[in-house]
Amino acid sequence: MASNQSHTASAKVEFSTPEAAILEILLPGYTFVSGLLLSYLHIDLAAYFQYIVLLAVVVVASQYLWRYVSNWFEKYLVSTAELRLDDEIFNYLMYWWSRQPRIKRTNRFMAGVRLNSYWSVHDDSDDEEFDDEDKMSDDEQDSIRTESFDEYWKQIINRDKYKRMRFTPSQGRHYFWYQGRLLMLDRRYEQTQSRWLLNNEKLYLSCLGRDPSVIHRLLAEAQRTYVERDGSRTIIYRGQRCPSSSTFDWNRCMSRLPRPLDTVILDETQKRAFLNDIEEYLKRGTAAWYAEHGIPYRRGYLLSGPPGTGKSSLCFAVAGRLGLKIYLLSLSSRNLDEDNLWSLFSALPRRCILLVEDVDASDITHSRGRSMTKPLDHTDNDDPDDARTPPTQTHNNMPPTGAPAGQNGGDKPTDKTASEGITLSSLLNVLDGVAASEGRILVMTTNHPEKLDEALLRAGRIDMHIEFRLAMPEDIQQLYKSIYSISKSDRPHKVTRRQNGRLNSTQSQTEARNLSHGSDAKSMIPESEETQALNNQARIERLESRIASLAEDFASLVPSGVFSPAEIQGYLLKHKDRPERAIEQVKDWVTEERKKKNAKLAAKLEAQGIVKT
């Protein structure tokens, strides 16, 4: 018993030594563990004090040493590219990665069905259906045309139930091989005091060695893959506020197939003048000529006319023809202030179209006094009896009366705001102020140019004014032909293949009849492909001649200068497969639409107190 007491006493002495106190600080729980070992296993850790301290020091020092070595290694022996979400190169890499076969084999990935900026909207559209139809055989296409709507719609609904899943790398590090080099992709999310936000995401692309050329090649391939997916599509961006802050930025909203310029209903002289002026502005040497003569390298256009006459369509068609991107801007946003407006304009790339639709809808652009601009002949409404077709004119370099070109007479307006939005002064300064961006094309559309402030329309801001009109006879004929012309499904090579199938079955029957009647062997020789192509071309020419004749009949039944091209097109779409029926029923449609317009006009005048019913 005495020995046990002495052993306990020695243990207490052992636990209270300075060495034990130091070990307790370095290794929390040392006192408890050493007491257990001493009591049950009779192992005195104090005898190994120096080794334990050495081990603790090595462990702590190794952590700092590892950080130092890894930082030195990454700094001097690794090349790294940082990609931020607010830059378009982030979209390039994410789109490229999502298309790689390795994403299907990895066991760490992020899955989702939500559309992000690195997937365009048309990825989920019905364009894939059209592409698949082009790859189908003629028999398969004929079966599709003969299927009922219920069968077709059932397939579409079943397909739309399942959104396409997209896979991207998950958070963390991912190693992969590219062109024989080992690369690492590190996806990180930076936490903030607010809720988790996607815009805090960053990508780090690294490779061994101080030569980052392999990263450059990968990013160039990613950019090429991202850009080539759109083909000849027209990319449309929209200026809107970022969801995580109060700043504005250009966000890609969609990409659309280019619209043929000849489908825009407008006087051919005006259309050609508009296109030629833009081509002259964009051609080689123009920017240098502007700089040599001290002229800001900018160009502005005003497209005015009644609703539905094709103002935005012309802009979209020209953008598709020249391969330009369109940037949409709304001046009516209350969240758009002067700083954000400057930020949007400074972020515009060179050689793009800035489209401001319905510029008269914003109060800041309205005239501050008596308009100095000659108004159009049509009134503020779209009614046929009061909206007479104005003469078609194209005004180049049109300064307002009383304001010499190149001078800012009256260009210092009082600050007139749309609620909490921008002022007219800030808009004019961002258009052609000293610090205004250059190289872009400004296109503004309006239904009421007479409401716009004269400072907004002076030369240098608006260099060409194109007035759109209601549909004239030649416009109505062009609309009819565009609706009922030869479609892509009736292209000559496809028609020829379908005809070949029918000819083969017919020729076998003819050969049997000729053999039974002893016909000459020459009559059994099938038509050559060249002959078939000529016959097919002749059939198409007869059909186009027939459509042209029907277009004249249709135009003779629709009053001139009464309806907009959009209204007539809406009617023709109701009979898109029945051109003769469109002519038969057009008189009833004209009568009904006239009644609606007159009723609308009467209600408007009554509301204004002009007439009483």
From TrEMBL:
Residues 366-418, 490-533 are annotated as: Disordered. GO terms for cellular component: mitochondrial inner membrane. It catalyses: ATP + H2O = ADP + phosphate + H(+). Residues 297-473 form the AAA+ ATPase domain. It holds the Pfam family AAA_lid_BCS1. PROSITE patterns: AAA. GO terms for molecular function: ATP binding; ATP hydrolysis activity. Belongs to the AAA ATPase family. BCS1 subfamily. Residues 53-264 form the BCS1 N-terminal domain. Residues 501-517 have a biased composition (Polar residues). It is found in: Mitochondrion inner membrane. This is AAA+ ATPase domain-containing protein. It is a single-pass membrane protein. It comes from Penicillium ucsense. Keywords: ATP-binding, Hydrolase, Membrane, Mitochondrion, Mitochondrion inner membrane, Nucleotide-binding, Transmembrane, Transmembrane helix. InterPro entries: AAA+_ATPase, AAA_lid_BCS1, ATPase_AAA_core, ATPase_AAA_CS, BCS1_N, Mitochondrial_chaperone_BCS1, P-loop_NTPase. It comes from the Eukaryota. The chain crosses the membrane at residues 20-41, 48-66.
